[in-house]
Amino acid sequence: MSNVTYKYIKQNKDIQTYIAHADNALFKIGYTEHSTTHAEKCAAIAHMILSKLGYDERTCELAQIAAHMHDIGNVVNRQDHAQSGAVMAFRLLDCMGMPAEEISVIISAIGNHDEKTARPVNPVAAAVILADKCDVRRSRVRSCVREEAMSGVFTEDIHDRVNYSCVKSTVRIGGDGEETASNKAIILDLTIDEKISSIMEYFEIFIGRMALCRKAAKTLETHFELIMNNSRVL
Fold it and tell me: Using an 8 Å Cβ cutoff, are 112 and 6 in contact?
């Protein structure tokens, strides 16, 4: 085990720079927020999931690191950003002296988080997939779009509209009866303002992501549930 901690990764200026430039590139082409806020939220969710399911602390920390760095490849190009991000992460972590065993886990997770090519190849990858796909929130919509929406002019972009309609989002671990790793569910609980976007529109753009979440949960020997406006829909 190395002494490369999540705290160190979070404060590393090079990684901060790559995340900031990647987010700016996505802003220029009209994508939702992928800033340090997204990185930190994903890291917190990934750690929470594995911790609640009984994984050891270092595995949970590797999930934090992978989740925090998972989108740095967007600084290269949105296309194949998971793979380019994995290569970037390898160089950064190798230079920090992290052992190959840990780097392998992290870059596999980063390289397998985009829904077009993603596979939950290990528990850390599964946690990163779930954390990334479950970060649905109004604040991910860019400020210029939020200002228009507050004025009553809703964007024609369905991704912006669906994210803006999400007024509350919670990821939690739940289950019926005695809570053990085998019966806990990973639950994404959303409150959607249906005056802005319908539940059907959510599924129109996120059904692939939700299917991937189900695969990731299965890798963790649990299952995934989606609750929207107090009703279980998945």
Answer: no
Residue 29: CB atoms within 10 A of its CB come to 9
Query: For residue 188, what are the β-bridge partners?
Result: 171, 226
pLDDT tens digits, one per residue of 156-205: 677 888 888 999 999 999 865 444 555 689 999 999 999 888 999 999 98
The first and second tokens of residue 213, run together, are 């979440």
Reference 110, options 62, 77, 75, 61; nearest CA is 62
List b or e across 116-140, with b for residues whose CB sees 16 or more CB atoms inside 10 angstroms.
Answer: eebbbebbbbbbbbbbbbbbbbbbb
Cα–Cα distance between 219 and 20 in angstroms, integer?
A: 32
pTM: 0.92
DSSP character at residue 215 = H
Q: What is the pLDDT at residue 178?
A: 44
Q: Mind giving me the DSSP string for 3-63?
A: S--HHHHHH-HHHHHHHHHHHHHHHHTTPPP-SHHHHHHHHHHHHHHHHHTT--HHHHHHH
- Residues lower than pLDDT 70 in the chain: 1, 144-156, 175-183
